[in-house]
Amino acid sequence: MNKQLDTPAAPNLTGEVRGATTRLRRSQIFDRSIQFLGIGAFYVVILIFFSVSTPNFMQYSNAINILSNVSVIGIVAIGQAIAIVSGGFDLSVSGTLPLGAVAYAALVNRPMSFLEATVLVLVLGAGIGLGNGLIITKIGINPLITTLGTLSIGAGLAFTFTNGITTPLKDLNSGIWGNTAFAGITYDVIALIGLAIVAVLVLRYTVFGLAVYAIGGNREAARLAGIRVDLISTVVYMISGALGAFAGEVVTSQLLAGTATVGGTAALASIAAVILGGAALTGGEGGIIGTMLGVLVLGTIADGMALLHVASFYQQIATGAVLLLAVGFGRLRQLLGGTS
Amino acid sequence: MSARPSLRRARLGGYLILAVFGIFACGGNTPATTGSDKYTFDYANVFDKSPTFKSVGDNLVSQGTQVGITVRRSDNNSDCATVLSNAKVMVQEKPDVAIDWMGCEGAGPAVGKLFGDAKIPCIAVNQVIPGCSFFNLVNKDFGVQGASIVYPLVQKAGWTPNDTTLILAAAPGAGAEVNSNSRFFYEDLAKMWGLDMYTADQITDTTTTLGKNLIQVAGQGTGNGPLEGSYTALKGVLPSIPASRHLIVFTINDDSGLGAWRAITESHRENNTMILSAGADADGVNQLRTNPHWVAEFSVFFEYWSEYLLAMGVAVKKGIKPPTQTYCPQVVLSKDNVDQYYTGTTPKAVPPIPDQDKYLIQTGILQKFGNIPGAQ
Question: Which strand (E) or helix (H) includes residue B75?
């Protein structure tokens, strides 16, 4: 039995099976709670460590900094989590992100309203996701290869579109997501939290969400159960693409300029966060809350080490070590618990 | 039945979030600034993976200590997101002066806004940050002077525009200013020598080939640094250039130059090549001295940037208004003048302080080191 953070409940069963299922569910709940608390406790340990180590860490404004810093990767990671849970991958976010970034800058500089520009950016990202989904489901090319290809195309288009030149926002108010909403909290943070809540609800309480887990758990079984696997998979990539492009819009808001040089690490960072949050690369496991914790862990470590002025080389090592430690700990617990 | 675990996990999540915010909320506000006569500067370096650039940060820390200035450093890694998060960390730490060498032109407006809102005096290195004082080389001068060094050499060698290709290993994405060295190099050499005429403005980040003389590649690499990036880029482009053609290679920095040179020697085209590079680190100067094909090295005396930046920081903190741009010391080294400025690969003399930089003398910092002529 695999342990998951926030996998949705299985459909209700009847008869004698119910008792066994109930016991199983209790075991699962216990397991997931332990894992949730494990990552949560790990996060609290990190917080305490940095709080003790540097006086500038334990401040409200720094908490806002961390949330704002992780907002872009967090938004990307929501889409990535859905893709990974469905048994796929989306490397193309490192292409859709810069494309969304430069597209948003160009659109609001035309000038176009924030809302219109946002809709177009989302459509652009979803379009790339649609391409990914169709190539993967209809042509049958591996998601890794497909999204690697569209990553390259997207990033290249972003450079071509701008001629490699940074596009400052003519009206700085167009950078809405970087503005403060209240109490120092910026809109990018609100966007991240809002999207995360929506994603949690969709994955847990909708037929679509259950289908995503079913496809990730066993694609063929899902197909035999009547789930429209190709359609759901394509929609998953559209969501991931749209969120990738939207993350680009958020970056442009934060930088107050559109540049094609952003997003290079978005794919790997988002995958790392999703895995750190308890998802399995094989699909069918994981969820949004765990992913958000993963994003927070990575972002907090980066922020804390920056405040401690740890040399960047050591930061890389530490981040990698934490990732291995957290994922390795989960695996060890599975092995010791006799689960697979 | 299915709502229960969700509810429990949601509750756990809620407690966790409350705990986290509780921890943050308990924190006090501790200004990082030390005593009034001791300054604390925050410095974000451009790209620590390059030894040349890393040395600027290292020197800033060690020389800062010598004059009683604490320098806390970070690495921007030439990545926009890192630039922004480092700037936020600086704001969090409230240094006396923030010095930022971004490596990402796009982050300028946002970083400027962050420093401006926090009222932190700031210095932008190499790329403009609105609201910050600006310290930079004059990239264009390198290009122009480099062309004047190469022109007599190609004439002496009997090369012609018809049998020569220029490869610019530039830095797409780093901004027009940074790349103006290679672009003005081409423009000026084209004017003097009669190459296919293209102005610096016509050579953009997306330019790959222009006319029969110009090829541009990404010399700064993507992720792997300029050494590997330039090597890979040159290895990719060399097969497309007939072996009979002469090559003039202009690289953005010495790591890039070394990578390019490795690709050229592996292709056995070194006897048909002239190369110019920028940075004048030990490897670069050594190449200039020992490699007959390494014809020019642009020195910005990185070894002295820390002195300039420390002095500039103190000036800014004291409210002295710097000029639009504070120039770093710079000179184009050739085989003829390298001994004037370097012993072996170590700088022994630096050009006198430029006129527009003389406001730095008021701070007394340069005098403490006694290295800059005109400020001793």
Answer: strand B70-75
Mean pLDDT, rounded, of chain A: 88
Q: How confident is the model at residue A18 (pLDDT cuts 50, 70, 90)?
A: low
* pLDDT 10s digits, A193-230: 999 999 999 999 999 999 999 999 999 999 999 999 99
Nearest residue to B132 via CA among B114, B145, B147: B114
Other Cβ atoms less than 10 A from the Cβ of B346: the count is 9
Q: What residues contact residue A278 under an 8 Å CB cut-off, 6+ apart?
A: A3, A4, A5, A35, A39, A285, A286, A287, A290, A294, A330
Phi, then psi, of B80 in degrees rounded to 5: -55, -45
Nearest C-alpha of chain B: how many angstroms from A86? 20
CB pairs under 8 A between A and B: 169
Distances (CA, A) of B248 to A261, B168, B284, B293, B352: 28, 8, 16, 10, 31
SS (H, E, C) A155-215: HHHHHHHHCCCCEECCCHHHCHHHCEEECCEEHHHHHHHHHHHHHHHHHHHCHHHHHHHHH
Give A333 to chain B, closest Cα distance, Å.
19
- Cα B285 to Cα B141, B270, B290, B333, B371: the distances in Å are 19, 18, 9, 9, 20
Question: For position B222, what pLDDT does the model report?
Answer: 54
Which residue, A98, A66, A71, is CA-closest to A244? Answer: A98
Task: Delimit the domains of chain A by residue range.
Answer: 23-336
Alpha-helical (H) ranges within chain A are: 17-53, 60-85, 93-108, 114-134, 143-162, 187-205, 207-217, 219-224, 229-255, 266-276, 288-307, 312-336
d(CA B46, nearest CA chain A) in Å: 11
Give A22-68 pLDDT, tens digit per residue: 665 566 556 666 566 677 888 898 999 999 998 889 999 999 999 99
Domains of chain B: 40-137+302-330+350-369 (3.40.50.2300), 139-299 (3.40.50.2300)
CA B193 to CA A251: how far, in whole Å? 45
ipTM of model = 0.79
Instruction: Encode B73-82: b = buried (16+ Cβ within 10 Å), e = exposed.
Output: bbbbbbbbbb
What secondary structure letter does DSSP report for A135? I
Residue contact B29–A165, C-beta within 8 A = no
The H or E element containing residue B332 is strand B331-334
Smallest Cβ distance to A259: which of B1, B80, B113?
B80
**Which residues of chain A make contact with B19, given a CB cutoff of 8 A?**
44
Helices A93-108, A114-134: axis angle to 10 degrees equals: 150
d(CA A165, CA A106): 12
Measured in Å, how far apart are chain A's first and last C-alpha atoms? 6
Distance of CA B6 to the CA centre of its chain: 52
Summarised one tens digit per residue, pLDDT across range A112-128 is: 999 999 999 999 999 99
Q: Is B242 exposed, middle or buried (0-12, 13-18, 19+ CB in 10 A)?
A: exposed
How far, in Å, CA of B221 to CA of A195, rounded? 35
CATH code of domain A23-336: 1.10.3470
Place of tokens 């482009």: B237
Say what the pTM is. Answer: 0.80
